[in-house]
Amino acid sequence: MAVPKRKHSNHRSGKRRANDQPKAKQLHACPRCGTMAPTHVVCPNSNCGHYMGRAVIEAE
């Protein structure tokens, strides 16, 4: 079985882990009411409920 000949340095390990941090959510403004919502999600505003220009959830 293969075994590493030398220990990897902290710098090398850090370079590998440089992109492992969590990313911020992509937000966009609803074109109807302007509320910020994650992309590809129905507008969370209780008075709106639109997605891609269509009413998906009935407004209260």
TrEMBL record:
Leader sequence residues: none
GO cellular component, as recorded: large ribosomal subunit
Compositional bias segments (type: Basic residues): 1-16
A single GO BP: translation
Keyword list, A-Z: Ribonucleoprotein, Ribosomal protein
Pfam families: Ribosomal_L32p (PF01783)
InterPro entries listed in its UniProt record: Ribosomal_bL32, Ribosomal_bL32_bact, Ribosomal_zn-bd
Chain residue ranges for the region called Disordered: 1-28
GO molecular function: structural constituent of ribosome
Recorded family membership: Belongs to the bacterial ribosomal protein bL32 family.
Protein's UniProt name: Large ribosomal subunit protein bL32
Taxon lineage: Bacteria, Pseudomonadati, Planctomycetota, Planctomycetia, Pirellulales
